[in-house]
Amino acid sequence: TLPAPAPAHPRAPPAAMAPQLALRRGAAASLLVAAACGSSAQDPGVLLLQKGFAQSASAPQGGRLEMLQQEPANAAAAISGLSQEVRELKELIVAMQRSIDQKLANCCDKCKDDGSSPFSPPASGANPPMPGLCASFGDPHFTTFDGAHTILLRDMPLWLVKSENVWIQGLAKTTWGNLMGVAVGGPFMQNHSLVIYNSTLDPNAPRQGLTVLFDGQPILANPDAQGNAEFESPFLLWGARRTEWTPSLHDRTILDMDVAIDWDFGPWSERFSNSPVGGIYLFKFPMGIELTVTGQDFLSAVIKMYHSEPQTGYCGNFDGIADDEFEPPAEGSVPPLLVPAWGRPIGEGLDPVPEAQNLFLLSNSSATLVRMVVEGGSLQPDKKGGIPQQCSEELMAEAQTQCSDIRDLIMWQACVIDYCLQRNTAVVRDMAAAEGLQEKLVARGVVVAIGHGRCVDESGRRFRVLRTESVRHFAECMRCLRESVNVTGVLGAQLQVGGACELAVDPALNFETAGLKDPPVGKWADPAVVEPEGGESGSTFVSGVEQDLAWTCWRLN
User: Fold this and answer.
1) Which of 184, 175, 135, 134 is nearest to 156 (CA)?
2) CA 220 – CA 213 distance, rounded (Å)
3) Is 50 helix (H, G, I), strand (E, B) or coil?
4) What is the pLDDT of residue 386?
5) At a CB cut-off of 8 Å and minimum separation 6, what does 91 contact?
6) Distance between CA 438 and CA 555 in Å, rounded?
7) CA spacing 20 to 30 A to 426: which of 89, 96, 246, 361?
8) Which of 90, 93, 99, 95 lies closest to 34 in space, CA to CA?
9) Rounded to an integer, what distance in angstroms lies between the CA atom of residue 54 and that of residue 92?
10) Residue 407 to residue 413: CA distance in whole angstroms
11) Residue 120 near residue 113 (C-beta atoms within 8 A)
12) In terms of C-beta density within 10 A (0-12 exposed, 13-18 middle, 19 or more buried), how is residue 41 classed?
């Protein structure tokens, strides 16, 4: 015996209306998608909903089933008509489902990941691929897809990723101390291009800060009141600008990247989390490739992609082996704290991008930046000079005042440039912190490489030197300096190619009474003390170098 049916809710519809209500719900779902993605009067959901209303109007008392009970004689004809309507409704349901799927594909390609979207990763059968991350920032530094940590320290347009189909390029200018731009193009983009660059230095740019160009035209340039903007070119690009990190949109694994050390700029995650300078940009491309960029430290960028074909460039070959992408720095050439992030890139695709393939040259705005890099335009100030055509005299004077307590010439130059471009006192604080860190390292007897050239003080003066007779290898010269750490007045060392090591000393040092050890090889030259030619001797601190590729300078406080 079947249980008695539960009493109907006072406002429940008649049972015979259930099929029509189900159809209405399905049609309404179709209309919701249509409303979000666009629809027309011929949309299956529209037709289905209209049909449901028509049936309801023609049978207001419960529909055709109640009519069959009241008029048995007409049952055969009624059943035949009802069967035809059921077939039509089934066809509309199938069409409606197809319509929903199609509209979801059109509306949400950027967020689907089922392999059907142009932004999905390459097909891989039963074993889904794992994406890799490559970061580029600063001088520029790189963290490759395989986890190597390298640095370039060179002005040029460069390949981040170079493969048959995917071209991703960077633009580096070391006198500004930063990565300045990233460009994406190549066959996988059907030869369209995206460029994002720091346009602070370009007076003709559509906006100052970060500028984004798609095929040379500005995009994401008019954010709403909240600072947000979006752009889409079907099947090629979806881009978004946000003022702050959005967990539902941005990839958390970016914040967890290992960049070897915490830089003076702060922990790595602070370049992207919270509300980064210039906003945070996310771009999605075909083949599951993504690019996330902020304006922190001029430009900090992370590429997310899947390995699908042989590739080269500063992001590495993506073969799962980090050791074939770098060589460690020469012993003693950088402070021990920086060694993990100071690898020398090795491999293919490390030459400058040829002009014919340079994506930055496809627009006048970013081409201006390239010319400044390639043709030697720079922001290098001398200790009392300015930044030609880039910084007003008033702002330059303000920058020099703000940075006046920084004794290291290279850091002083970087501080002046950064302050002039960003007018941010945090730049001065960070630079001072970095200098303090270096001084602490030096205080522990660490030899710090300053660069190619003779050692000079903060006024550009050469030093009085103590000459060795036979120390001609850079490692022995650094050892000689390191062993003099406890001698007051020994400031640094310099070595000329083919020459002998010299210690740079303060004018007050007395060679006879200073208590210097003999050099690691041979003895002190005779005479050992040599005064600088044509001027006053440098003092107190090795601040920089007088550029000369035949010499190398190291510092010790």
Assistant:
1) 175
2) 9
3) helix
4) 34
5) none
6) 10
7) 246
8) 99
9) 15
10) 10
11) yes
12) exposed
Strand segments, DSSP code E, in 221-264 are 229-233, 237-242
Contacts of 217 (CB under 8 A, 6+ apart): none
Mean pLDDT of 292-307: 90
Residue 461 CA neighbour count, 13 Å, CB half: 17
Higher pLDDT among residues 461 and 444, named by residue: 461
- Cα–Cα distance for residue pair 442/491, rounded to 1 Å: 10
**Rounded CA separation 519/538 (Å):** 23
Nearest to 403 by CA among 457, 334, 458, 460: 458
Neighbouring residues of 460: CB distance < 8 A, sequence distance ≥ 6: 382, 383, 409, 544, 546
How far apart are the C-alpha atoms of 291 and 302, rounded to whole Å? 6
Tens digits of residue pLDDT in 238-262 = 999 999 998 889 998 998 888 776 6
Distance CA(103)–CA(46), nearest Å, equals: 14
200-231 residue pLDDT tens = 655 555 555 788 999 989 999 999 999 999 99
Q: Look up residue 233 and give its two tokens.
A: 């070119």
What token pair was written down for 231? Answer: 């752009």
Query: Around Cβ 293, how many Cβ atoms within 10 Å?
Result: 29
- Helix (H) or strand (E) segment spanning residue 292: strand 290-294
What is the Cα–Cα distance from 243 to 266, expressed in whole angstroms?
A: 19
341: exposed, middle or buried (Cβ count in 10 Å: 0-12, 13-18, 19+): buried
| pLDDT over 90 (residue 133) | yes
What's the pTM value of the predicted model, to 2 decimals?
0.54
Q: Which stretches of 306-436 are assigned E, i.e. beta strand? A: 311-312, 326-327, 344-345
- % of the chain beyond a pLDDT of 70: 61
Paired with 292 in beta bridges are: 282, 302
Q: Are 105 and 112 in contact (CB under 8 A)?
A: yes
Is the separation of the CB atoms in 445 and 556 below 8 Å? yes
By residue count, the chain amounts to: 557
The interaxial angle of helices 44-58 and 75-108, nearest 10 deg, is: 150
Q: What is the pLDDT of residues 404-417, one digit of tens each?
A: 776 666 566 666 76
DSSP characters over 361-374 = GGSHHHHHHHHHHH
What does the radius of gyration of the chain's CA atoms come to, in whole angstroms?
34
The overall average pLDDT reported for the chain is 75
The residue type of 457 is D
